[in-house]
Design goal:
single chain, alpha/beta, TIM Barrel, 7-stranded parallel sheet, 4-stranded antiparallel sheet, 13 strands, 41% helix
Length: 380
Amino acid sequence: MKRKERLMATLRGEGVDRAPVCFYELDGISQNEHSTDPFHIYTHASWLPLLELTREKTDIIINGGVGFRRGGPNPLDELTAQNTHISEDGTRHVTRQIRAGGRLLTERTRRHPDIDTVWTTEHLLKDADDLMAWLALPESEIGTPDFSGLDERERRLGDTGIFMINTADALCEVAPLFSMEDYTVIALTEQALFRRALEKTQEKLLQKVEAVAKARPGRLWRIVGPEYAAPPFLPPRLYGEYVLRYDKPIVDIIQKYGGFARIHQHGRLKDNLDMIAGTGCVGLDPIEPPPQGDVSLAYVRQRYGEQMVLFGNLEVSDIECLDEKAMERKVLTALEEGTAGQGRGFALMPSACPYGRVLPEKALRNYCKIIEVHENFFGR
């Protein structure tokens, strides 16, 4: 089977010649080794063998969003100021301030050129009063979807893979406005107020999902955000209030147009698996094994595998730290548990990828080991 054909058949729950294998955030196309962007880490020579391996041996899934072009002015522009400066060590510092009522809301972030992560050093909202000020900010129209990035990547992929449309859910739009400690306090103690914020976000979010899913039907989607309500952050009853209530309508829209909705949630799953299934999603990732998670892949496959394609369950920390023999055992366990018995499908996949400019040799060897074990498993 061609790689795109294999991935689509897996999503539909049809038979395939072998389970797909992908490297998740690595697709070999987005990580352009010829980029001139000083913050693009993949230009370092240590990444080239892995990018070539990704392009040649994996069932590629490009993870990306769809932007929107505004049809008119954004009323927030007059209330917002942003400043960017680069420090002596090359770190990019961004300060964004929004005037909301009598308050000045401030957010600060930083990004080092050798680390593919943005740290938020000051969050926009700090308390319930800030949230109420944010709720009163004016709204703008969503505009029209810009499919140029999606269409170009699908053209470049050809038969080698598929594009996965990425969207935040309402919780993922609101929770990161706070620090994690402030978010959990507000979500626990100001539930009515917090739901108002989710409702405000949800209205525009559903409009965007509808516009994209209708214009580009039949794609795989990844819905990000449910882990903000998972243990140990919030109790299961609030997972139902903050995730199931808002994510099910997103799933319904995606699948109304023939798409495939995949829930993304790191960490502990067991207490919330029934509610994840209740969204109607047909995919779940990355299903982290203990001790990072709290449930085995075999457990999820046995109880929920007929509904959902399972993507996982290799830890990026194992890729970076384990010797090749230990990595081989991890990969073999994931393949055995992910393909055992009846199920909609399974795709072997890490939970993330390294984010430093220099890729460690051990990580490269373990990525090669993933492919080797995968090929041997289906060749025997």
